[in-house]
Amino acid sequence: MTYARLTKEQFEELHQEFINFLATQSIDAKEWQTIKETKPEVAEQELDVFSDLVWEGVLKQAKYLEHISPQSMHLFALNDANMHLIGVKLKNDIDLTTKEGFAWLRDNLLDDNVEFVTATKEYSENKNLDKFTLIQQGAHITKGELYNYFLKIIHV
Q: Measured on CA atoms in the order 92, 96, 98, 101, is the torsion positive or negative?
C-alpha cells in the first residue's frame, strides 16, 4: 500500500464506489462476504488497493494544502513541477489556531512579531507521495483562499 487505508467512515461514504470497484473485478456482494470470511488477507488487500486508488485521485486533484499550528502557518500551492510555500511565523505568544489569534494576525501583518518566508521545492519521483506526506504531517487540502490572500500581500 502506497498511502494509508481509508477509515471506516470514509469507506462508508464511498460505499457505492467500493461496490463499483469490486464489480470491475467481477466480485458481487455474496462473493465479497465469502472472501471476507474465508480469505481475510485477500479482503485486506482489496481494501488497500481501493484506498490507494482513492488517495491517488484525491492527491492528483489537490491544488493547495495548509497546515496551521499555534505559532506558524504553512500554505502550499501544489504546482505541476513543484510546491510553493508561503510560511508565516509568529515570534510572540499569539495562537493562530484560535479565532482571536487569527484576527490578531490579520490586523497586525506588518508587526515585527510576524515573519514571512517563501520557498519552492521540486517534487521527488512520486509527486502524490510528497503531497500525502504533508497531509500525514497535519496539512489539509483547501481551495487556496489563504495562500492566495498572503500571496497578494507579499508580492505587492
A: positive
Q: Are 126 and 57 contacting, i.e. CB atoms less than 8 angstroms apart?
A: no
Percent of the chain with pLDDT over 90: 97
Q: Which residues pair with 64 in a beta bridge?
A: 77, 142
7-42 burial: b if 16+ Cβ within 10 Å, else e? eeeebeebeeebeebbeeeebeeeebeebeeeeeee
Contacts of 123 (CB under 8 A, 6+ apart): 81, 82, 83, 130
φ and ψ at residue 118, rounded to 5 degrees: -130, 155
pTM of the predicted model over 0.85: yes
